[in-house]
Amino acid sequence: MTSRTIVAVDQGRTSEAALDWTLRRAHWVKGPVVLVHVVEATTLVPGRVLDPARFERAQALLEAAAGKTRDAVPGIEVTTEVIAGDVVPSLTALTGPEVLLVVGEKTNGSLRTSAGWPAGVRVAAHAHGPVAVIPAERGESRRGVVVGVDDTPECLRVAEVAALEALQTGQALHVVHAWMAPNLWLDSAPLDDDFVEDLARPHQQLLDDVVAVLRGEHPSLDVTAQLVRGIPAQCLLDADPLPELVVVGTRGRSAFQRLFLGSVSRDLLLNLDVPAIVVPTSAVAVRSVPGRDSASAS
């Protein structure tokens, strides 16, 4: 469970979306909120200092956001911080297992190079703790928290993050495991139904095991499950019912691996129409699903 929330504040609709989501969550999840603005220093000429007026404008922006926060959630602890530096490294440095970093993002589903990906996506790829990415444009009315689980040992810890989020915000938890049949490119005939059923059986068992653990640890939590065959990111976004929040893990462990998101989290963030929390599994303790050996990462 995170102990504080950090919100990246800027001008524009994406920042407003991030702050509004944080305020709605703060009615349920009590804890200090830190509002941060990064003054870009990428074009700074050597030997030249940043214009002090930029910091004054940044502080005024943060104070306005802080006032909005206090008005919306009386009694909440709010602090502000202005940072000079590059946006992605500066925000990444604030992440950690006990912190939820909230960033707004405008996503359009276009696949770009990592250097051209939106800042929120790149922060999530580098982060050392959970990052909530909030789209500026949101879909229709939604409810519940959806978490995607896979066949890795870390999936149960990601599911636990989602379970705590659901409990804290008074929502149900929907556990989704998406799988895809192997690409039998040498055989153009459709897969036999019995063969597909055999392929699905271990996936269903994995899902049942995860749900059993969550229900055992959180008896008051409404937990449902769904096994689907299809592209994982799309299955999470299209879960029934449509989710209010999606939680997914990403497996980058080394400094080099953290430059890139896994395919599921990447595709999810580039097509967002719902808030998502990305949990780097390298920042959480691994828990094995009872009755299972450690599964290999896909």
Tell me the strand order in the biggest sheet: 3-2-1-4-5-10-9-6-7-8
Biggest sheet features: 10 strands, mixed
- Give the class-level CATH name of the largest domain: Alpha Beta
| Named CATH topology of the largest domain | Rossmann fold
How many distinct folded domains?
2
CATH 2nd-level architecture of the largest domain: 3-Layer(aba) Sandwich
Q: What order do the helices and strands follow? A: EHEHEHEHEEHEHEHEHE
Calculate the terminal CA-CA distance, rounded to whole Å: 26 Å
Helix/strand/pairing class, anyone?
Answer: alpha/beta
The dominant shape is: elongated
Average pLDDT metric: 83
Question: Uncertain spans, ≥5 residues at pLDDT below 50?
Answer: 109-115, 253-260, 293-298
Q: Overview of this structure, please?
A:
By secondary structure, the protein is of the alpha/beta class. The protein has 2 domains: 4-135, HUPs (Rossmann fold, 3-Layer(aba) Sandwich), CATH 3.40.50.620; 145-283, 3-Layer(aba) Sandwich (Rossmann fold), CATH 3.40.50.620. The chain has helices at residues 13-26, 52-72, 87-92, 119-126, 155-168, 193-217, 232-237, 263-270, and strands spanning 4-8, 33-40, 78-85, 99-105, 131-135, 145-148, 173-179, 223-229, 245-250, 276-280. Strands 3-2-1-4-5-10-9-6-7-8 form a 10-stranded mixed β-sheet, sandwiched between helices. Helix 2 links the parallel strand 2 and strand 3 (78-85). The two termini are 26 Å apart. Mean pLDDT is 83; it is low at 109-115, 253-260 and 293-298.
